[in-house]
Design goal:
Layout: H1 2-25, H2 34-39, H3 54-85, H4 87-101, H5 116-128, E1 138-139, E2 144-146, E3 149-151, E4 156-157, H6 161-164, H7 209-226, E5 227-231, E6 244-246, E7 250-252, E8 258-262
Antiparallel strand pairs: 1-4, 2-3, 5-8, 6-7
Protein name: Cytochrome P450
Keywords: Heme, Iron, Metal-binding, Monooxygenase, Oxidoreductase
Pfam family, one: p450
C-alpha cells in the first residue's frame, strides 16, 4: 500500500506540474475541469483565505483518486455479485439498459435518469453493502439523553449504517437482494432518509456523493451493456461467496471472479 501511494503521488505530482506548465503557456485560461479550478487559486500573487499551494492541490487530487476508486469499485463488485446470484434481476437490468440505449450505442451519463431499475439495483447494493460500514465519528456537543440512553458530552459516536440497512423493523426481508423494493419507495441515499445513509447526512455528508453516484451507475451500466457475464471455476450462483472483509471499507472477502463474454444481440 505504501509503495502504491508513493507511485500515485509521483504520477499526480507530475500531472499537476504538466498542467501548471500548460497554463503558463496558454494565451487564454479556460477552466475545463476540477484541476483547472484548483490551480486558479495557486501561484505567485495569490493570497488570502482562497489561496492554496500546489502541494495542497496534489493532496486533494490524491484524496479523490484513493477515496473514489476504492469505494466505487467495491460497490460495483458487490452489485455484480448480487446480480450474478439473481439471474432474474440481471436479466431485468440488462433489458432496461438495452431498451433505453439500444443494442449499439454506449451508455451515457444522460441515460441514468431513464434507468429506474438500475438505480434500484444500486440502492439495494448500498443498503446491503455500504462501502464504509461506520460513518466518520462524531462527538457529542453536550450531555444528551437519547431513547433512554445517557450520552455524556465529548463521547465519540459512530453511526453503523451497515446495521441500519439491515434493520428488520425498517426493511421487509432485510437480508434478501430485492431491487424492486426501491421501485415503489421514495427512499434515497442522498442524506434525507435515515433508513439509508451510505454517504452520511447533514453538513458532513460525503463530499464525493455526486461523483460516486455518476461513476457507479455509469460503470455498472457499461459493464452490463457491453458484455454478457458468466461465473468461472465451477461456481454457480448459489455458491458465490458473499462474506465480507471488514476494515475501514467493506470489500468481498473472496474477490468476485466473473468472465465477460461477447454480448449476444437480440435479433428482433
Amino acid at each position: 500500500m505504501v509503495r502504491d501511494m508513493g507511485r500515485a503521488l509521483e504520477i499526480v505530482s507530475n500531472f499537476v506540474k504538466e498542467r501548471v506548465d500548460e497554463l503558463k503557456l496558454a494565451e487564454e485560461q479556460e477552466t475545463k475541469d476540477l484541476l483547472d479550478a484548483l490551480l486558479e487559486h495557486t501561484g505567485e500573487g495569490k493570497q488570502g483565505p482562497d489561496s492554496i499551494s500546489n502541494q495542497i492541490v496534489i493532496i486533494i487530487i490524491l484524496e479523490m483518486f484513493f477515496a473514489g476508486s476504492e469505494t466505487t469499485s467495491s460497490t460495483i463488485e458487490w452489485a455484480m455479485a448480487e446480480l450474478l446470484r439473481k439471474p432474474d434481476s440481471m436479466k431485468k437490468v440488462k433489458e432496461e439498459i438495452n431498451r433505453v440505449t439500444g443494442p449499439q450505442r454506449k451508455v451515457e451519463e444522460s441515460d441514468i435518469d431513464n434507468l429506474p431499475y438500475l438505480q434500484a439495483v444500486i440502492k439495494e447494493t448500498l443498503r446491503l453493502h455500504p462501502v464504509v460500514p461506520l460513518l466518520l465519528p462524531r462527538n457529542a456537543m453536550r450531555d444528551t439523553d437519547y431513547m433512554g440512553y445517557f450520552i455524556p458530552k465529548e463521547t465519540q459516536i459512530f453511526v453503523n449504517v451497515w446495521a441500519i440497512g439491515r434493520d428488520p423493523e425498517t426493511w421487509e426481508d432485510p437480508l434478501a437482494f430485492k431491487p424492486e423494493r426501491f421501485l415503489v419507495s421514495k427512499i434515497d441515499y442522498k442524506g434525507q432518509n435515515f433508513e439509508l445513509l451510505p454517504f452520511g447526512s447533514g453538513r458532513r455528508i460525503c463530499l464525493g456523493i455526486s461523483l460516486a453516484h455518476k461513476v457507479v451507475h455509469l460503470g455498472l451500466a457499461t459493464l452490463l451493456h457491453s458484455f454478457d457475464w458468466e461465473l468461472g471455476n465451477n461456481i454457480c450462483p448459489e455458491t458465490i461467496d458473499m462474506n465480507e472483509r471488514v476494515g475501514i471499507t467493506t470489500r468481498k472477502l473472496i474477490p468476485l471472479e466473473a468472465i465477460p463474454k461477447k454480448r449476444v444481440m437480440d435479433a428482433r
